[in-house]
Design brief:
Shape: globular
Distance between the termini: 33 Å
CATH superfamily: NADH Oxidase
Structural class: alpha+beta
Radius of gyration: 16 Å
Number of helices: 6
CATH class: Alpha Beta
Helix content: 25-40%
Strand content: 15-25%
Number of domains: 1
Length: about 170
């Protein structure tokens, strides 16, 4: 898929079929995440955790449900957590990594949803860090719910939908 077609096709998916994510597609999505720009080139400041087993997803969902989030992962069969060293640069790094993965997944024809609020607002951060195997000194910034989308969304027009000033 050409870049601008991918941008137009990318949208948040909140319903997944449960179909398996092809291993080769997941590998390319993770590579895209690793290609993101990271502050000062400190790639060791970012950690990814791929939850792809039913047991792992059930454990993750159980912790998130303690905060009353229901299925905050929308039935996705895969979740990629992004953890970074704490601080504002960590959030920027995570955002760049996630956007690359979201676009790569769209190019692969897969559905995604950028997940942040239920992770950042969790009252069970230590338990989440344990389930996601996040090392000490790192904080879970956000993640990507990933899978085969149940249904499709229309492609977006690439014209600006929000005010843009040019000076």
């Amino acid at each position: 898929m050409e870049l601008y077609e991918t941008l137009a096709a990318r949208h948040s998916t909140r319903s997944f079929t449960g179909g398996k994510v092809p291993e080769d597609a997941l590998t390319r999505i993770l590579r895209a995440g690793r290609a993101a720009p990271v502050g000062m080139g400190r790639f060791s400041d970012v950690k990814l955790t791929v939850v792809e087993t039913a047991e792992g997803m059930n454990r993750l969902r159980a912790v998130l449900a303690k905060d009353g989030a229901g299925d905050a992962l929308y039935g996705a069969p895969v979740f990629i957590a992004v953890a970074s060293k704490e601080g504002p640069v960590g959030f920027l790094n995570a955002g760049a990594v996630i956007e690359n993965m979201l676009l790569a997944a769209a190019a692969e024809g897969l559905g995604t949803c950028f997940i942040a609020g239920c992770l950042l607002g969790s009252k069970h951060k230590a338990e989440l860090a344990s389930v996601l195997k996040v090392p000490e000194g790192f904080e879970i910034m956000s993640g990507v719910a990933l899978g085969v989308a149940a249904g499709s969304a229309p492609k977006k027009a690439l014209e600006a939908e929000f005010e843009t000033k040019r000076i």
